[in-house]
Specification:
eleven-stranded mixed beta sheet, 501 residues
Length: 501
Amino acid sequence: MAPPRGWPGPGGGQVANVDPPTMWRATTVQACGLWPFAAGSGAPMSGVPLGRHLFTGATVCGDPLSWFTRAHYISNPSLFMLGMPGLGKSTLINRMLIGLAATGVVPLVLGDLKPDYADTVRALGGQVISIGRGVGGINVLDPGAMGAAAQRIGGEAGRVLAAETHGRVLNMVAALVTIVRDRPVDDHEQSVLSAALHHLRERTPSGRQPLLPDLLQVITEGPDRVRAVTLDRGDETRYRDAVDPLHRSLLGILDGPLGDTFASATSTRINLDAPAVCVDISRIGEADTQLTAAAMLATWSDGLGTVAASHALADAGLRPRRWFFTVLDELWRPLRAASGIVDRIDALTRLNRSLGLGDAKITHTLKDAESLGSETDRVKARGFVERAGMVVCAGLPRQEMEELGQIVGLSSREIELVSSWSSPPGWAGSGAVGEPPGRGRFLIKVGGRPGIPIQVAITDTERRLHDTNKRWVENEVGIERASTLVPDLSKSSGTERAWTA
């Protein structure tokens, strides 16, 4: 019998490499006659193609919406992803976004902080909205798509939707006041805001949307409807005592760090017919936590209002039903910005099934939740992982994996595997760019099932659309400037040469 590589020696035909046999995928009916050469695998095939199984090489497909609606693998259309920076977490979500958009699902990136997804949304023909000082703003009193849908539907259904719109606007104004004060709004102040918003809506001409300065003017004037909820009993002093703290907070919004972004008309409304939407807030600095929190809350309020409007129009038979997929990357940053974000995301993870909405949340470690200000917020944040239909792990340290294993039920082999992906590349580099061993490798966990390890290989198009290291690539101007500023070390003294060496 010939050796596996052929006979050695002259005329033997020994080969250095043996090509692997071609692999085919077929159903049990089609491949039944090929037994024992056909072997099945546990790789799911429903959803967006993600990559290959790390051990079997089988194609693995999946996404929260497909596994919830078609495959029924999960009971909640949500995904939670953890992993160290630079291992490809947002790249995998970017692939899901592209694949779901191809099936008619509308991706919504409500608050792109880097940005990671704006180029992809543009390539899909979607809408990119920039928010930030001097770039674009949001009028929190604008009912947006929900208000337009309420008018179009009319009747009792339209009235109910209009009431929901009023509640969303009220909650958003109260959230801005909470951010400025760093404490919740009092109950009687909520009543004052609600009455003032009703009065403002009634006196604003059709076709024009009220602004925050208009709301402040109503509180200053003190119409009867607003005075009634303060129990002023005709006493001007009692009325001013009741509304002055709220008045000062609204002035703090208009004249403070939030005024440029929230005091004027909405620069660009979300388009209900767009195939994808990205709200880019990357122009807001990382240290500007107040504006980040306000922009995130306003963006989520407007985005989820758009989702509600789309479903209301579909219920009335005025437009086809559409599903949505929201992406919240760098979860640690909005969570630390304000407690209102935690409540908003907590509500979303509990209600996304009824909203026709799938979601993906991405962060680095479970310790991101431990850094929140209150124990209540920490408990809510830990619940995001417990309620997620899919938990996806990139490379993480062993201690982090052991803590995560107490929540999602990881085996010792799975903990060891994912922990090995967090190792850095070796020191013995050849000058080429060395990648971490765990880049592109993920473990997908669903309930008590064994995890599915996958290897993701991105295409050139994906790499071009989703390059998170753009700022580390020198441009021609930078190279030219560097060449004029850096001296020629070959002309330096011997002491300098020895020190630089």
